[in-house]
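Same chain as my last thread, 500 residues:
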Amino acid sequence: MSFCLFKLRPSTTYLTFFLVASFFIPVESRGQEFEWNQNFDAKIDSVVEQIMKDFHHPGVALALIQNGEVLKESYYGLASIEFKVPVTDSTVFWLGSISKHYDCVAILKLQEQGKLHIKDSIYKYLPDIPVDWRGITIEHLMTHTSGLPFDGQDSSRGSNSVKDNMVYTSEIMYEGLKKDSLRFKPGTNFLYSGAGYSLLSLIMEKQSGMPYAEFMEKEIFHSLGMENTYIMDVTGIRPNQATGYRWHQGRLQLDRNDFRLIDKELGAGGGVYTTLKDMITWNAMLNSDQFLSRESIDSMFTTYVLNDGTPIFYGYGFFISANLNNRIVSHTGIAGTEYLKNSGTQIDMIILTNLGQPVDTPFRYQISKALNILPYLSVHEFASAFKMEIGNPDTYSLEQLLGQYEGDPELYPIHATISKADNQFVILYSESKTPDGDEIPISLYPLKNHGVLEFEHFHHYPATHFVMYKPVFSGDDHSKVMALEVYYQGKLEGVLKKLN
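reply #2:
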């Protein structure tokens, strides 16, 4: 599992996704043929309604677009359960982390206006940053390669600095951020960081001369005619805004996320609210060169390359993957939202919901499957794409891996169990559960290099990352497993100690 990941793995709660140097899947030009027919309409309605039932979604708005043509625009369920308000084309949804690429568009717009350059050190715009931050560029913030931590317990922004400050200004947030130390040298690794996007908003404020929310709304949204899109403000009253819910303890509850209270002034990286109509407009902008240059748009969809030449799975605010040579750019949000652009079929998919989710729901997967455009990879194809080979190890038995594991409470607070059912080894994380509280089994497959590969087709669409485990033995005879080293994209991420 990974601290770096967005969504169906335990790391979902920590947000992240992925691709690596020698493990990079090429994305050259073989696309899938796809032609819409009316039979798909009812089929997709059935899929959406079943997912809503299974995951307890109150309301959903969905758009499918191909080459600029809206194939399907549909609204389901309730924006407010209390007042029985249906979801309509006027309903405003919170996007969560899908907002990140909105911020990247704003940064690139400022670059085109000559007000900044993404290769600049942030020291140029924030001269009082800590000394060890001076190697961070704006581009590092956009690609989560700055070395800054994720919010939550790992960041001063997410823990120590906010509890006594319910009136939370830019200055207070910035002072909290400056308490954070880097986890690695900028440009050498990936770590999903909301803190980095908060710094982007401060740079936007300085270079635009406007508060972040005002700049985004006036110079970005309104310039595109998106009059029903805005940055979060929990103290304001906005018409048609969907009520947020979560499924907790067997029932739907109002979702009151602490960050939405403290981030009312700086909603960068997760604060955009919009309607489906406005997001269709936004999607059209990303498919043209009318607002940003084609060069800027293409840069958003290009995998960032680390200092050592390793390409990662992330561009500017988007996860980037390739299934059978179809480039797929995507992101999800903790508000239950999903956004995907498939270059092979030219299908763009927008799913907006009002159910906060700690893990992904399978809208993208199930809709793609219903449309017969799901690029299928077997576990052997998946392993081969990442230069690995499935096969039994010759020095130990997989039976030795069965048992419970835990990571360091401070550095890697993960709990896992490896078990076996119907001749299939699986790993279950206590931190990754369905809305009804069931742990999600992920199949394990032995590798000939003595590692173990994690793979489920559902989890790996879009196929953006791999997780591999290597057992640590008590001696050279491989008689007893002491721990599992967890490798994410080929790099050691953490260690899980075996408890029994």
